[in-house]
Amino acid sequence: MLDHLLQTAQAYERKHGKPPEVVYINPYHFEKLFRYYPELFSIKHSIPLGFRLVIVPGSRLTHPEAAILTATRPFSQVA
Length: 79
Fold this sequence. Notes:
Structural class: alpha+beta
Shape: globular
Distance between the termini: 16 Å
């Protein structure tokens, strides 16, 4: 799962010339990340990804999606 998120971010950067600010994921993706990579969410030993994770309902997103935030696209900070 983590490698897929990183590939999504890298593909976005290759296409747009700058890294994404966020990667949108659904609750299933979050569950897998939290289960297999708890250090991503640890306060003591956090691993910076270079972007924020935003969890959206699974019905709205089946695959991770990278983006740059704009004033018209609201988000909630998760990680």
